[in-house]
Each structure stands twice: as C-alpha cells, then as structure tokens.
Amino acid sequence: MEDEKTVIASPEAQQAHCGVSRRAFLSGTAVAAGAAALAGLAGCAPQTSGGATAASAEGGAAADADLAASGAMQTTDPSKAVWPVVEEVEVGSAGEGEIAFVAEPIAADEIVATHDVDVVVCGLGPAGDAAALACAEQGLTVVAVEKQSVGNYNSATIGGTNSKLHKHWGMTYDTEAWLADAMIDNAFQGDITLFKHYLEKNGEAVDWYVSHFDNQDPNAYPLTFAAGDFPDFRDQWDTTSYGRSWNTSLNLPYAPGDLAGILAGILQEAGVEIRYSTPACQLVCDDGGKVTGVIVKGADGYEQYNCAKGVVLATGGYEFNQQMLKERCRPRGVPGHWLTGAFGNTGDGLQMGVAVGAAEDEFPQPIMLDPEQLMPYLRVNKLGRRFVAEYEPYGHLAMAIQAQPGTYDFYVVDSAIGEKIDKIWTPSSSCYGPKEVWVGAATSENALKADTLEELAELMEVPADEFVATINRWNEMAAAGKDEDFNFPGEMMMTIDTPPFYATKEYADGLCTVGGLLVDTACRVLNKDRQPIEGLFAAGIVSGGMFYNTYPHNLNCLSHTRNCLMGYTIGQVLGGKEA
Question: Of 235, 402, 446, 478, which residue is 20 to 30 A from 518 by alpha carbon distance?
C-alpha cells in the first residue's frame, strides 16, 4: 500500500494531491535513442496527457484549426500551441530520443525496490556532477542517476569573472557593463537577480570545482582567447564587434570526452553512488505538494527513492524531442542542423517539474545557436544580398542567419583565402583551431566553386545581378577600409577578387535548448506564483529564467560556469550553509 507519499503525474492526480490547478500537458514520445535526424515515425506517435496519440487525434488538429480561426492564440497547454508563420520552415530535432518521463501515476505494485537517501541528482552532465559532488561534501547521502550509459560533457571550458584563475591572469572586469550586456541579450526578460548572484558567486564556485582536478598548475588553465595565437591578450572583451565578446572563458587541461569519466571518479571518491542507464521518470509528492522523492527505472523495473533533503533535476534540455521543440520554440528559432551527442536530452526533467506545478520559461523558449562557420567570412542570403556585420558574437550571427529567407545563407571566399585570412585572425577567432582548419572548411568539397562570380551565383541559385553587385560593393568598401553598410571592421575586410571563388551553404547549428524551469538564486524550482516547490531543485539547462531568443555567446562560458555554480549552490543550501 502507498503511505502518505503520493506519486504525482497526471493533471487529475496533481489537482487531487498537490492542491495545484494545472492544465493537461504532453507526455512525449517513446522512441528508440539515436543520433539520426527525425524523419517521422510510423505507428509511434506522441501521446497527450489524456492518452490520445497525435496520429489518431484528428480532433486535436481540428481543435487547433478552430483555435487559430477564432483568433484565440493563448493556451497554457503546450500541445495545443499554434505558431503563425510568414514562411514555413522545418522544425527538426537532433534525433530520436527515448523519453523517460511517465505522465500517468506509476502504481505502488509496479515499484520493485524502495530506497531512503538524502538527495537524488537526476542527470550527470556538468550541472549534475557539481550538484552531486557538492551535496556529498556536505555529508549527505547522494545517489546520482543518469539516463545514458555515461555522463555527458560538450566542452572542456569554464569561465566567470572573479575566480583565482582569472586573478592569476591579471583579469578584472567591468561587471556593470557585463550585466548590461546580459540584460540586453535577454531583452530584459531574464531574472536580474540570477545574473547578480552569478556575478557575486561564480569565482567561489569555480575555485571549488577546479580544486578537485589533479592538475593544480594555474598556467594549465589559459584564457580561451589567449590559447591560440594571442597568448598575451588581456583585454576584457573583443573591441572590434558590435557586441562585446567577453574574455572570460578558461580552458581546462582535459579533453571534453575525458571529463565525464574524470568527474565520475571524483564523485565516487566523495561517496556518491552513481547509477547509469537509470533514467528518472516521475516525481513523488506528499499531500502538501512537497517533493519527497523520485521514481527511476532500473534494469528490473521502477524503483522509488525517498529523499529526505530533495530531488535535483539536472537532466539537460529537449534537443531529442521533436514534439517539445514544436511546442516550445518558434519555428524560425529551431536550427537547420544540430551539434550534440546528448542523446538522453528529451525534456524529461522539465516535464517532471511541470507535472508537479513548476513554472517554466514563457514561449518561445531559446536555443543555444552557433553559425556553422565561426570565421567572419562575407555572408549573403538566398537573394544574393549581404545581411549582417559578419564579425559578431556567434549567437548574434546565428540569429541573423535564422532570420533570412529559408533560414540559411552562404559564406563566400576566393582562392587567396589562405593568405588573406590573417586580416580576420583575432583572439576570439583564433582560439578554436589553426588557420588551415578554417581555410579548409571554406574551400572544401562541400563548397560550390566557380571561375566567375556569375557562374558561382548560378550554382548557388541566387540572383546573379544582386550577388555580383554585393561582391563589387564589398570590394570597394574593403579598398576604402570602411564598411558603410554594416560597420564590419574596415581593417579586417578582405577583397574577393581572386578566382576561383567559393561559396558554402550554411545553417545555424543548435547546441542545446536553454529554456527550462524557473528557479531562484538557491536553485529551488518555482511554481506559477513564483513560490518555491519544497524539495525540488534544478540546475543547468533544465533550469530557466536567464535567456531569451538564444544563448548569449558574447558572455563567454556563462553556461558551463552557471552549471558549476548551480550545483555548488545546491550543496550549500542542502547542507545548511546558505539560505
């Protein structure tokens, strides 16, 4: 028999047991994990919380049509979201992810084992690792469950503004200017208290995190902008673009692919029990709405963890859940291509939180975007026209690409790019690889190649007169040393006049979704009245409140540092050291 703890899942159960009124929500699609792009699944359609499949629920489509026809565009049910568009664009996920979240209550007789612990951390990416480690170091009994067979790290970097490493490199920052950039980047829709907390505490968290690695030589942790051909670069930001690109990122002396294993060893040494291939499926609440545990799926079936201190959601985003992308992100905000190996990111934690009354970022939710080509090569759209100051922080440039007809562009170089690239070789462009990599990308077999601009335009299927006029004007401005159209740094403009010419079609790349559950500075998940849900915490990109439209790449390494800070904060809070 069930005791006073009640599994919370369906809207009906939520209303009965948590005392919170909620709308129906989408449970998601159970499909095989993988990296292939979604191309539609026969016989495997997403289910709504009422149990009807999207494939069979013809009435749902009719209801959406009626909703649009009536002019009533508001709905608190994401599955009924309507996105009017001017130009239809494809919304594709990063692949087919196996959804772990279970919408309907898991019955007591389905639970094969019950455990009593202090904390369960759901997910072992950077945020989950930090949370599990910080909690264990406060003397708490911690279990970390990970959906995949290993943890996940996409980058061996960390950042901040006031760590010992930054001080070692002599860096100081105008944090008022940094905060102004942050608020402008999120269109003043982010929670400024979260950014201020970040500025106050990031150094403390980074110092704590780095102290666990075997390499304690500060010189092994260079500033990312100084890790290429500009080892002495110490400016606060790159001054040559419209948007300040802050020199705040640090390289860790480890390969990204090694970090998950390194952190797993550190966690186990600290006493954390790690369970791989064990996804979190559903939260458990008591009659007052407090989260008291979590149900996971082990090899033998469902297991319930009763958590004396709390449950930490660190399950990542929903890049591998096409339905959630369609619901929560405006179509033009979803990238043409994805760069992520986090196959388990299907929005499980976000939906688990919503199921117990959590508030999430308003729609459309943001996606972390990069241009496919990081060099500031000249760009034209399908009309043959230039559309952006190409030397911009990556998130800005990616959004400009997304705004173009068809959500793509072409970057254009000539055969002398190997010599001309020196003009655009700067601290922020040199830190991700040697020149030959970027030259090779622009002249690869994927590039269109022609001896004349007119022939190249034909291959690109853009208007030849517009394209040739664009290149001619660029060359004139390059010769004059001033971009009168978009204010690209004149000294960096390189002519395109040496055949053969190359053009490469480019989409924005997606790294991860960055919209999630609203939290306070203690990482407590908030309900729709902005009050904490007792016993529930979120860290990393399953949490929200800071970003809008896209991730601000100009605040370099904010995401990884935020992961570290949130995990560290949760340990302090649950250990009773921070309110």
Answer: 402
Question: How many CA atoms lie less than 13 Å away from 426 in the CB half-sphere?
Answer: 21
Distance CA(386)–CA(388), nearest Å, equals 6
Q: Which two tokens stand for residue 213?
A: 């690695």
- For residue 281 the two structure tokens come to 């499926």
Global confidence as pTM: 0.88
Residue 35 has pLDDT above 80, yes or no: no
Which residues does residue 246 pair with via DSSP β-bridges, in sequence order?
237
pLDDT of 65-104, one tens digit each? 555 555 566 888 988 888 889 999 999 999 999 999 999 9
Cα→Cα distances 209→202, 297, 562, Å? 10, 30, 12
Query: What φ, ψ does residue 387 adopt, rounded to 5°?
Result: -140, 0
The token duo for 492 is: 């960096």
DSSP-assigned letters across all residues of 490-503: GGG-----SSSEEE
- Calpha distance 82→68 (Å, rounded): 7
Q: What does the pLDDT look like over 264-305, one tens digit per residue?
A: 999 999 999 999 999 999 999 999 999 999 999 999 999 999
